[in-house]
Amino acid sequence: MENTPAISHRLHVRRGEIPAASTRAGRVYRGVAKSIPLKHVELGTFPIKRFRPLLDDDVWSDLETTLGRLAAAMRGHVVWNVNSTARGGGVAEMLASLIPYSRGAGIDERWAVIEGTPDFFEVTKRLHTFLHGVQPDGAALTEDDRREYEAAMARNSAALLEQIRPADIAILHDPQTAGLIPELRAHGVRTIWRSHIGVDEPNQLVRDAWGFLLPYIGRADAVVFSRQKHVWDGLERSRVEIIPPCIDPFATKNQDLTDESVSAILKAAKILPCKDGAATFKHHDRTRGRVARHARLDDATLPYEAQIVLQVSRWDRLKDPIGVMQGFAEHVAPRTDAWLVLAGPAATSVNDDPEQPEILHELAAQREGMPAALRERIVVAQLPMEDTDENAAIVNALQRRADVVVQKSIAEGFGLTVAEAMWKAKPVVAGRVGGIEDQLEHGKSGLLVDDPRDLPAFGDAVVSLLTDGMKAKTIGRAARRRVVRFFITPCHLVTQGRLLTDLVST
Ligand code: UDP
Description:
alpha/beta; 8-stranded mixed β-sheet; binds uridine-5'-diphosphate
């Protein structure tokens, strides 16, 4: 999970609810503490009882009890989530799906979005890159950067403190909000910092970013990481919690679809051949949407009966779509009758990211160079992105139609696409990298390729599932059990709910 290109929930953003000046900030920072309008994302409520049929009795009772306790402990107080974007990115998508369930369970949970100047976002982008162990153009983190960062934090904490009260809880997401901790704490707000990014083996750049952020994070009441391997050195272990990301089984991307709906959606999107297809799907709030736009497949046609190997991802080198195509062409196609579908966002939707169109060109060139009989079994599908729910419905249908789902990433924090496929009981072949190693148990709930660049090993794993229906089914079923046990919304609500209750009771 990184920069998710789609969010599948409709958000309403309010702006400027907060009066424009505050005398309360500036205590911690040197920056000008003039408050600014914050965005508030308005969210409805979802009932947690939706999950009842999915959960064992003990897990359900745990969910009800934990959220009931938290609601009682927080009566009269608010759980605030603060991040830097209301749309786009996995974090926004996760908040949009999680918060309504807490609200449905009687917890007053809200979501505010900070503001920043281009210079501030320049600094936080650099921090983000450093935290991945990569140095952009020899850049460093300087004292000027700290001043810029702290000035933005002072303005935002002033705005937040117009609304956040002592004994409220603030969950601050990612480096963009870490600097709010000292000022919020100074006003009696309980603070949790949640990191959604990390690397397994930190280098000096990663440590430089830690050094920049530790003065703030060291003062949080609790710090949450997605994986044990992402926990920073120098943090008090008793204040660290691990909460993996999760998927919502009832989101448009994951909700159950009949085989007829799957076909109708794929036909309406012109991924399966059809003259004039029409298809509908349900939004998360149960209202109906329509698949009206078409995917771009260029000269390819996917036959109805094709056995399908699918990778869904942004056109990103770390997802290695070029390696997937080559691995399929050299090691899967000659041994099976399967087709490969590489699906991702339409090039027109990613103007701000020059790498994605570039990769699409490389894929087209690689495919062009193949003999016709092979080329026609490889489909590069650019999915319409204008309506995020329509896009999600197409992704859902593709994942449900696939026989084997692959995620041959070279690096991955947590593979949302892996969890989505597991939920759909699909056998997954993925690189043994990052969070995917926590998601799949090799040979049981998926197949892990030790070195994702090892194309013969990748091919063998895919072929073993395509040619052994029983193995594919057994692994798919185990994957579904595993995702329900560890990686769907209730798992997250319970772990976070316990953490928050502990925090207010101490
Ligand atoms: N996705 C999508 N439409 C696309 C391509 C990807 O909705 O055309 C979604 C995909 O289903 C998943 C997310 O984007 O929910 C990607 O998350 P993941 O953790 O796999 O990778 P990231 O892009 O965050 O690195």
